[in-house]
Design goal:
7-stranded mixed β-sheet, 9 strands, 422 residues, 20 helices, binds flavin-adenine dinucleotide, alpha/beta, globular
Length: 422
């Protein structure tokens, strides 16, 4: 049995959030000193970022890497990742030139596709590739060696690694460059690179991160994404001219598309044997005897890191109940995330504590919640299902999908897209 710890409530704001992480969560993070990202946590910051986002030019500029002022990407992903902004809300609120809105919404659908894939296959997304690159490169293993392996290469690579580590965020194009450089050109194990991203990204999710890495290797399209000089010249003008390797650029031409190992596809990629489980459609009130709708009343709202915003269905259904957030100590100990991610979460929770009665715990969710009936929003990730199954009672609210999961093929984005209604 783990030790259960009730943590104090931090003051709102960056310095208090950093001090809280340093004092209570330092043993769970991979970097020192504890410092927050330029991207702030909290509902107010999320709402401000959405209100400030101008979609005009998004279609042509979303992949711009440098200079920063030319970037067209929204940088909303940390808020979307942690449910401070829900996909249906972002979909409805974006307004502007039709071409840009269509492209932006298409990317929201990629996020939704990643979530459907993960909700259906869970951990099998790590192995359910149609094909994998041959993994004969050096196994990197530790966060430091992945970091070093990346940085010791090229300025256009290390600049992006620096940004990832210092800010906890990267534009999509930079993620494609790094993942291609790692796994397509150097044939290194993609799961080491995936883990490194997951550790440092504020928006790091097994769903979208894994899909991104697999997409780079060509898992969904039979063709890998090759990163080479011409993309840098196009998307980061000036970098190549300033580079000391410019006249002997080691990525002048595209990397070879190495043959990939074929892996057996799980049948669940073609059709869903249990759609209710995937979508959380069973998620109504669960009582000890399993009768839907007849369980005990909720005593507390349980917020998870998937859904921390004012629009969380469980939170808004019970405006008078206390709110619990649990830093899952065994999980965080295993993941060793960057302190930036935890500062982001603490900023969010401290802001919520200004208007709600919040309890913060360090421990395992089923143990913290063992004696209380929580009201919680279904989260389409395997860890949530496991914790929920271990609780004697819970009132479960449906996850606000952008499009409801279907039982048809999810073998590729386009196969999945054919089955959705948007
Ligand atoms: C190797 C690799 C790893 C990635 N890891 C993650 C991750 O851990 N978490 C994550 O949310 N996204 C991940 N992505 C997808 C994408 O790069 C980010 O969602 C995007 O860069 C976030 O920045 P933004 O909010 O400015 O995106 P915008 O371009 O402004 O898009 C708006 C939103 O659409 C969604 N979106 C955009 N592109 C994608 C995409 N290709 N796949 C899925 N959703 C998308 C995101 O929710 C994003 O916030 C990864 C992509 C690659 C290639």
């Amino acid at each position: 049995m783990e030790t259960l710890t009730l943590l104090p409530i931090p003051e709102a704001g960056r310095p208090a959030a950093e001090a809280f992480v340093a004092d209570h969560l330092r043993h769970l993070i991979c970097d020192e000193p504890v410092s927050g990202s330029p991207i702030r946590g909290g509902q107010r910051a999320a709402d401000a970022a959405l209100a400030a986002f101008d979609v005009s030019g998004y279609a042509s500029d979303r992949n711009q890497v440098h200079p920063i002022d030319d970037r067209g990407a929204s940088r909303l992903s940390p808020y979307i990742r942690h449910g401070l902004l829900m996909l249906p809300q972002v979909w409805d609120q974006v307004d502007g030139p039709q071409r840009d809105v269509a492209k932006f919404r298409d990317e929201l659908l990629w996020q939704e596709y990643a979530r459907h894939l993960y909700a259906r296959l869970g951990r099998r997304t790590g192995t359910a590739l149609r094909s994998q690159p041959p993994e004969h490169g050096p196994a990197a293993g530790s966060p430091t060696s992945v970091d070093q392996a990346w940085r010791s290469t090229l300025p256009c690579v290390s600049a992006n690694v620096d940004e990832l580590v210092e800010s906890g965020w990267l534009v999509n194009q930079a993620r494609m460059w790094l993942s291609s450089h790692w796994t397509v050109r150097h044939q290194r194990p993609w799961s080491d690179g995936e883990d490194f991203f997951f550790r440092h990204l504020l928006d790091g999710s097994r769903a979208a991160n894994r899909l991104g890495w697999q997409w780079t290797t060509g898992a969904g399209s039979h063709k890998s994404y090759g990163f080479s000089r011409w993309q840098v010249e196009r998307r980061a003008p000036g970098w190549c001219q300033a580079c000391e390797l410019s006249s002997r650029c080691p990525i002048e031409s595209k990397p070879a598309d190495h043959p990939r190992r074929q892996v057996a596809k799980p049948s669940a990629l073609a059709s869903d044997p249990d759609l209710a489980r995937t979508s959380g459609a069973y998620a109504t009130t669960r009582s000890p005897d399993g009768d839907a709708g007849s369980g005990p009343a909720a005593e507390v709202v349980w917020l998870t890191a998937e859904s921390l915003g004012d629009h969380d269905p469980a939170l808004s259904a019970h405006p008078d109940l206390p709110v619990i957030f649990i830093f899952d100590e065994p999980l965080l100990d295993r993941l060793q995330l960057s302190g930036k991610r935890l500062v982001f979460l603490v900023e969010t929770l401290a802001e919520l504590a200004e208007v709600r009665n919040v309890e913060l715990h360090l421990g395992r969710p089923p143990e913290v919640l063992a004696d209380r009936t929580p009201s919680v929003t279904f989260a389409p990730v395997p860890g949530f299902r496991r914790h929920l199954a271990a609780l004697p009672t819970a009132v479960v609210h449906p996850w606000p999908w952008l499009v409801p999961p279907h039982a048809g093929s999810i073998q590729s984005f386009s196969a999945w897209r054919r089955g959705v209604s948007r």
